[in-house]
Amino acid sequence: MRWLHTSDWHLGRGFHGHSLRSEQEQMLETVCAAVTEHQVDVLLIAGDIYDRALPPEWAVAALEEALQRITEGGTQVIITPGNHDSAARLGFGRGLMRGSGVHIRSALSEAWTPVEVTESDGGQTLVYGIPYLEPQLFAPSLGLDGGHHTGVTAEVIRRIWEDVERRRVGGSEPTVVLMAHLFAAAGAASDSERNIGVDAAAGDRPEHHEESIGGLAVVPLELFEGFDYVALGHLHGRQRLSETVRYSGSPLRLSFSETRQAKGAWLWDSGSVEPAQPLDWSIGRPLAQLELPLEELLAPETVELHRESYLQIKLTDPIRPARAFQRLQEVYPYMASFSHTGRHDAPHRTYSAKVERARTDTEVVEGFLEHVRGGRGASAEEAQLIAEGLQAVRP
Hints:
By secondary structure, this protein is of the alpha/beta class. It is built from 13 helices and 17 strands.
């Protein structure tokens, strides 16, 4: 039986003020096409289907259409909510949808009640979907005194294995799959993930430890031993933590820290000795990070190469050129981030120092201009306007 592991669709999300609707519609089309092309039997979506608890109407309609297309082809879909989703809203109608092949595990009690999938050879696969569990909210329901991600996850997994044992009748050995939305040890972070107790910068790979709540928020891989496949969501880079524990990552790049991340999904054949194989997807506009002086950024060859990309631009001119932002915006319509990183070598760099040294009101204003414009002082015309303005307001 063939499985497609995805997560972190974040339907309804934007990118630095730009709408991602067209990219996300392309993403849903890509998932539907992959299900058909690879003859997928079960699609796993491990959390953060939406980007917020109240998604836009188009996102809800687009998800419904995609799920309908997928299930009409005979593929089953199993969904768990992530920390961006509203579990209650996402789970609405799950009893009705079960009959159409869409299984949503959105309640705590459903975490140790599997979706039972019968394989073509008659074997059975048990899929346990753990919804995102905020420790402080769910620890009491699990009989735990303190709340942290490791403790909550460990208790849920203990109950899952109890359920598996009850189902091992007559010596049968089912395939057991786990879905969860959490921060697992040694997973690499991105800038676009909402903090769920782990203070990790982009690229960090925090380990589990018991010295702090942050360390306990990182779930150790040992908890996932024994499962045939663990489909994780939350981290946005596709990554393999062990032979059976994997993050699919987000299909789209959602921050500039993901510029060089592998994007796509995992394709896994249960019952096969072969490990899960990556599917590579390139969806939406490319991302680029440019750190150059203005002259090079406006060069025709640079503009031609990056005009259609979402750009993070860091201007390196020692003194910020006039109208730099506006001139770049004219040639790069998808510029998403702009900053001036240049440094000018004047002996007094701070505005407070300029104020201390100023001998006239005009020098105070000109010092402010020089400060906010990265070292570029007032032009002769501007100096004349400043002088006239000050003269006009003097008693």
